[in-house]
Amino acid sequence: MSAKIVHNGVFLLPVQRIAIIGSGNLGVNLAYSLEKAAGLDFAGIYGRKERDFRGSDWQVRIQRLDTRLPQADCYFLALPDDSLASFTASFDFGDSLVVHHSGAKALSEIESAKHTAVFYPLQTFSADRIIGLEDVPVFLEATSAPTLRDLENLAGALGAKTHHANSEQRLRLHLAAVLANNFSNHLIYLAQNILEGSGLAGDSLNPLLEETFSKALKIGAFDAQTGPARRGDENTIARHLGLLDTPALRTLYRHLSDSIIETYSNKK
Amino acid sequence: MSAKIVHNGVFLLPVQRIAIIGSGNLGVNLAYSLEKAAGLDFAGIYGRKERDFRGSDWQVRIQRLDTRLPQADCYFLALPDDSLASFTASFDFGDSLVVHHSGAKALSEIESAKHTAVFYPLQTFSADRIIGLEDVPVFLEATSAPTLRDLENLAGALGAKTHHANSEQRLRLHLAAVLANNFSNHLIYLAQNILEGSGLAGDSLNPLLEETFSKALKIGAFDAQTGPARRGDENTIARHLGLLDTPALRTLYRHLSDSIIETYSNKK
After folding, report:
1. Do residue B19 and residue B149 come from a single domain?
2. What is the ipTM of this complex?
């Protein structure tokens, strides 16, 4: 895994034949990118059940993984976090590179294999909305410098922007992603739910959401903050609390407001 | 305020000469839209202090409001919620229309005036990022049907999309906007803060944020939900909680995760 060959102008990677194990949201998105990448040999995507996966402009056959691994230089383990260790221990990967994609698990999680690395794309993936890796920041970690270089080349061939992060930094990235993505998405669900419960169209919020996120990216979320908590308007906060149906939602609203109040009382 | 005149193809509104009182985020954004609208006579924007406000492609002179109101058919009160009632009571608006823009205050807040209405744009406004009202959903309420029609015409001339909402519905809209906009923005700030504290670039989150909101709008936030809480992955939740610095942040993380767990245990 060290010599680099250029053939007919196509850059051939030392890690060239890649198989994906796992056919969930991440697996099928990675399959899309690997199949479209030039200079890589996609050895297929493997899951528990054989089936055809159809994207809007693309399809791929998911093969059944039996007791034998397909032949590959590199295995992408697009598996649930908690099955990474036991899956890795149950196969002999020989000299092939074994890669996991988890934000929350350390590189050592798959240490039963000889050559290991992490390829963590900071993005949210859904099987019913396939996206490429272009412009996705991918955070890499590997047990050796040559493996890290191989992985950088591989990520480059997929169009991803690479950075390095050790296992603890990656867990912080994952935490940040959960706050910014999973929790924001849930708040949007709660908001859409309130509108629908009031006989108002849920999509009335769309222009607001577009502006919110465009603004947070452009001027930074600290400066973009507005609203009753930012102004310390306890009167409006009390009236909102009065509208919320459950103690759990009222507690959530109160804690988020207090966190905003606390943020702006300490800074600036 | 009822006859409609068409002059040289320009639709002249019965409510034609509009003055804005208040030169904060909302006031200057409304001034931009009113000054650019055809068929309306913008009587100017008034605040506590005289000054020139400069947007990127536009500027306006903010005039000082003394003891006398400028002459207008309609006054937009772009004032803090808590000063709406006392401001309205301290002037004689005669037969002119008095309009407030608050999501949280009832129409009755300004009942000391003779003709009153609410024009609530469901959008977040900043003075350093001026936007037009095109495509902004504006929720209207008025004390009489003719006033409501006048207001609809006025909102139409500003390019806004109009809907009707009574004072209680509007408070729910405002609550939904706080959840979806203010609270999401704060979570993005917390996420950017975690990255910066770990020596990682805060803008690494940008592609994730773009995908999150594009997905929530396209397939709905309920179906777009991913993450440890959605999967019930208490192991990862515990590791994230271990990284958070303060009891307040840990409480916030726990409540948001529980709200997601609760949402998906009851439905689907």
Report:
1. yes
2. 0.86
